Amino acid sequence: MGVEPYLVTSSVEMIVAQRLVRLICPKCREQDPGKEFAALRAQMGAEIPEVLYRGRGCHECRGTGFRGRTGVFELMPMTDEVRALIQEHADSGAIRKVAVKQGMNSLRGDGWRLVREGRTTVEEVLRNTKNEKFTSRLE
Ligand SMILES: [Zn+2]
Q: What domain count does the chain have?
């Protein structure tokens, strides 16, 4: 963004990213029987729960199966390692990799929390976090 690295590393304590995902309509929520859980878990990791939900579609959600939205978040603390990478002009992928290794839960990882809670769908999380290279802190 054209900001000198020292200005960022000396004044920023935490970097927050947010996306909005649609929530499954509570009036027509049902277990999703058509899912290939094994394939999804193999692809996305054990954070994908065995039971998934979807919205069937009803008058409350105008047939979409979704009603309302909520945020998924990614919090990256400005650790010494992250600070050093920024000062070296490291690319964002390298910075992300270190942050995830240090325990940062990614946007997508936070999305899986909502999937485990039965509040949104796998597709909705993937659609809203499609630029992510890391799917979870386990990678
Ligand atoms: Zn509905």
A: 1
Within a domain: 136: no
**pLDDT tens string 67-122:** 999 999 999 999 999 999 999 999 988 998 999 899 898 899 899 999 999 999 99
Query: Token pair 């929520």 is at which residue?
Result: 29
Rounded distance from Cα 80 to ligand 1 centre (Å): 47
Q: How many whole angstroms from 111 Cα to the centroid of ligand 1?
A: 21
Domain with 36 in it: what CATH number?
3.40.50.300
Domain annotation covers residue 46: yes
For ligand 1, the distance from its centroid to the CA atom of residue 130, given in whole angstroms, is 26
CA–centroid distance, residue 45 to ligand 1 (Å): 29
- In whole angstroms, how far apart are CA 91 and each of 87, 96, 97, 109, 125? 11, 9, 10, 21, 25
pTM: 0.77
